[in-house]
Amino acid sequence: MPEELRKCPLCGSEKHTLFDKRTFKGHQVVNRLCTSCGLVFQSPRMTAEEAEVFYAAEYRRLYQGTDQPVIKDLLVQRARAQALTAFLQAHVPAIGRFLDIGASAGELLLYVRKEFGAEVVGVEPGEAYRRHAAQHNLTLYPDLDALAQAEHAPFDVVSMSHVVEHLPDPVRYLSRLRKTALASDGWLLVEVPNLYGHQSFEVAHNFSFTPHTLRQTLYAAGYRVEVMEAHGRPRSDLIPLYITALARPDARYAQKNIQGERNVALKRRLAMLRRKVLLRYLSQQAWKEI
Ligand SMILES: [Zn+2]
């Protein structure tokens, strides 16, 4: 049975209203808006046990028809890995050790190894993807516990590309990363779909972040945000489909009060209207085939 969230997972408020209700690939998906902090979160949602079964058996098949890596997905991942590597090159001077959580087939690991000469390690729950990555001489662990057992030195950069929105409790997970895997002077790289550009309401997305709520989430987990950008790379030159952030450990922020965001529903409506117009009249730049 799916679980109903009584409290907002970011600020703890019990005041939330219905934000969106739809069917996604046969699953009923209901998202709620916290009227205190503006976070949009799925509720009811899969329990931890249901999610474990879902990611082991159904996720890849539901999204791409098979649990094996497929060419179309690999090409998208390669294009995204290239864009993220360029983003890192613009902001991070050097990387000695790099960890990618949700490493998938290892495309980002390959780019960062090549461009920065870094020692690279990944975490990826999908077994077929780990096998694929192993062909490129990459080390991937199934989860954080297996990574911890391997006793790697702290990482200079930990990346989570299209992962945080899937987690049941992002603040807790990101805090754990900060304390156990990331160097105290390291960088966290996060990319998520943007509520103000991406459709986002998928069964696997527990959260639909805005730049504001992503920033508050990073603060709550004890990070200082250094760079944040809404953009469409590699998919669109015009629609801000994604939010990419670089943040650094700073436990002082963990004490900060959550700052609320106003008019989330209105901003979403305007963003989706703009998206529709761009897709219709400037389709070449608005949606690039990869
Ligand atoms: Zn809230």
Brief overview:
The protein contains nine helices and eleven strands. By secondary structure, the chain is an alpha/beta fold.
Could you describe the 3D structure shown?
The strands form two sheets. This protein has a seven-stranded mixed β-sheet, sandwiched between helices. It has a four-stranded antiparallel β-sheet with strand order 1-2-3-9, with no helix packed on it. It has 290 residues and is an alpha/beta fold. Strand 1 and strand 2 form a beta hairpin. It is built from nine helices and eleven strands. Helix 2 (71-91) packs parallel to helix 3. It is globular and about 45 Å long. The longest helix is centred in the first third of the chain and has 21 residues, at 71-91. It has a single domain, classed as 3-Layer(aba) Sandwich (Rossmann fold), CATH 3.40.50.150. The protein binds zinc ion. Zinc ion is lined by residues 8, 10-11, 13, 34, 36-37, 39.
Biggest sheet architecture: 7 strands, mixed
Strand order of the largest sheet: 6-5-4-7-8-11-10
How confident is the prediction overall: mean pLDDT? Answer: 94
- The CATH architecture name reads 3-Layer(aba) Sandwich
What is the CATH C level class, in words? Alpha Beta
Q: What is the overall silhouette?
A: globular
The whole-angstrom Rg is: 18 Å
Distance between the termini: 38 Å
| Helicity range | 25-40%
Under CATH, the topology can be stated as: Rossmann fold
Counting DSSP H or I runs of 4 or more residues, the number of helices is 9
Percentage of residues in DSSP E strands: 15-25%
